[in-house]
Amino acid sequence: MNPQARTVAFQSGERNIFFHILTACNLSCRHCYINTGQHGTETLPRETMERWLELFADKSKKSNVIFLGGEPTMHPDLSHGIARAKSLGMAVTVDSNGFLFNDILEKSSPDLLDYLSFSLDGPDAQVNDPIRGEGVFAVCTTNMRRAVAMGYNVSVIYTVSNLNIDHLHRMIPLLAGIGVKRFFIQVIGLRGNSAKETVGEKGWQVSPEQWLAVVPEVAAQAAAAGIHVTFPKVFLGSDEPFECAGLVTENFFVFPNGRVYRCPLCEDHPIHAQEIRDNRLVEHKGLTEDNFFQLSIAEGCVMNKLLQPDTISYDASGKPEHRISCCLLKQEIVP
Ligand code: SF4
Ligand code: SF4
Fold it and tell me: What is the total count of domains within the chain?
């Protein structure tokens, strides 16, 4: 374990709104988690996007909104959404696949958009493009450079799987050379396409041993290169408490069909805790994710145990070798 890595405790006075403003996308990534059967196919009209932002505005709390899709820059009114969120006092991030449609760099500004995050799954086209699509690496890195040159804070999200974990360390010179400020290393979840399609003999998910051998070390190297790194905790130490974000934080995963989840692992199932109806946020009745958050099990996260049981290994006495942390629990290294 790298001594500089710090677990980012859940902040009770903070709220995060993960706002999917459409589900359409120009790409077809092999691990895409978008599930139109569950999330709808709507593109939210500008008025609706602004009304829904207002539902989650609470000036007494530090609020972060992350605009997502599909590809959010395909929304012709994204720049209006960014401006409205900022006027509501929110910190604003856009997560893009790098194509930056609708002249978003020109229509918005670094004063309104706190972070522009690019998804990149490899340090070169040979690693990235088999996962995200032919030609994507070139477009994405060109636009990252353009955004940096225009004064935007640029971050990168790298989804670690068996297809790219061996290349993670090569991201550091690339990101440092471009001027990327933050690096988010994610673990692949078995949702959407990655739950349906298997890859190679080892499958998508890396083993605990691989993860622990590679990710903390690369994160430390990235921080040494001046990049702020965030990566999921995944495995709890025996002395570390387990907490479910669904009980202790305010996270809202909002979809264009009005579903509002508190836990991203639940998104493939109609068990959302809340929904937006007639521009009002209401409780979703019946069996919802809230019922699962209360359960206390030796394996840690209940939804991980239900949906991804292969990620848990047991010793000879039947005790889990690692407790799985909440997927929202992060570690960070600040340079
Ligand atoms: S860019 Fe995002 S939404 Fe589009 S296909 Fe890839 S993972 Fe899915
Ligand atoms: S990932 Fe697990 S621990 Fe985190 S909110 Fe969901 S159910 Fe709770």
Answer: 1
